[in-house]
Amino acid sequence: MMIRQFRHLRFSPLVIGLLFAIGLAAVFLPSLYTLTLLVVALAAGALLLQPLWFLIALLLLRSNADIYMNTFTFFSGSWYSFNAAGLMNIMACGIGLVLLARRFGRGQRWLPSSPLLWLSAFLLVGALSIPISQDFAASLKTWARTAGFLGIALLTIEAARDEKNRRRILQAITLAALPPLAFGYYQVATGTGYLFPGYSATPFEFRPQGTFAHPAILSSFLIVVICLSLAAYVMKYPLWPRWILLGLAATSMGLLVLTYARTEWAGAAVAIGLIGLLRYRRLLLIGLIIGLVLLLAVPEIQARVSGAKAAESFEWRLNVWNASLKIIQNASWIGAGLDTSPQLINTVLVNVIAPPHNEYFRTLIETGVIGFLVFLALQASLLLQSWRAYRWGKAIRNYCSARNYRSASRQVLGLTLLAITAGGLIICLSDNYFDYASAQWFNWVIVGLAATALPLSPTIEWGEEEKGDEFALLPSRG
Fold first, then answer.
1. pLDDT digits over 26-38, tens only?
2. Residue 73 φ then ψ, to 5°
3. What is the Cα 258 distance to its own chain's centre?
4. Dihedral in degrees, nearest 10, Cα atoms 396, 401, 406, 409
């Protein structure tokens, strides 16, 4: 089959263009750029030939190499310079364009789920604000990073053609968590990790970051792993043996606590509580007891929640939020441009150059009222899609065997996305959640998988392998 695909691609304009570009790069550009372009060419071939394994390779690379992404800089000193993370964002954008073209060629819908439609609308508003941005390069890079989420979701839909592939992708997410967990606990044991100079001589001077660039990114990623593991555990979905799922969730929660990322703690509490509310009520009680024990018995957690440094951090955020509100009063309909909020806040708070640490304020500043409304619609569509996937899987199980794993996977995906989205809405209140592209990639993989968990939807194209006996047992939808 792969040979037939290769013959089909042999004279593809994409392949010919890449080969020509590599030849030019070898003549005119430094060897690092030529090697990078060769890697991109190989990645393009892998994308077209084996999208499943290409996606898995991307996820493993993103989670395990994020800490090293700043090591390599391309076109250093120019306005369009970018690091390895930027290269991956650009690659994800390219993936999205290739897959959109492929879907158009097949006569399929370009954007097969409502969250992707709203994400595209948000990208359109962001693109309209780029020409008026005070920092064109920063706005363009932020737009490319956000567009990469669309590319990753489309790649997931392309790769998850059946239940077997969906399960492989979910397993890859759990496997991608192992190196960050191991490295994170090593950092805790050795007192190393991300340095916070303002917390010198305190327990929070070094905080574990795992293989990610920042502890908050690690925490956001761990929330995805925790939600997936717990959802598979309570649904008895055979992703891995149940004791492995429980162990993975427990070790992830332990490292999440040790990152001392308070906003992510709140998001994780909401996500875990939602899973418990919908599927396993004991989880609510267990989580409440563990939380109280940690708060009452661990001095570091008490200091992180209510100590002097915690009060300073909260006061700093209040000042930034007040400055953001002043800027919002003069915001245009399409905002000031992506990633311009730090410079605008600096005009109000002279000693502060930072984003608002609130995604709602940030969206209003950078994309205006229109972008803010589209952002809210995007979040609502994520909640609706996840709820539909969860309820649809439950409906199938009511008519099928309790051990029907395909219906269980749909419930797992719906429940996981619902919990991640709810937790993310809380994190957005006090952090720069969507800046954490490495963690967001995994969120949008779940979004893509949840889109494939809605059979008989007019926006999804299903192969014959999805039309099993389970659907014949369902009543007609009219």
1. 445 555 555 555 5
2. -125, 130
3. 21
4. 80
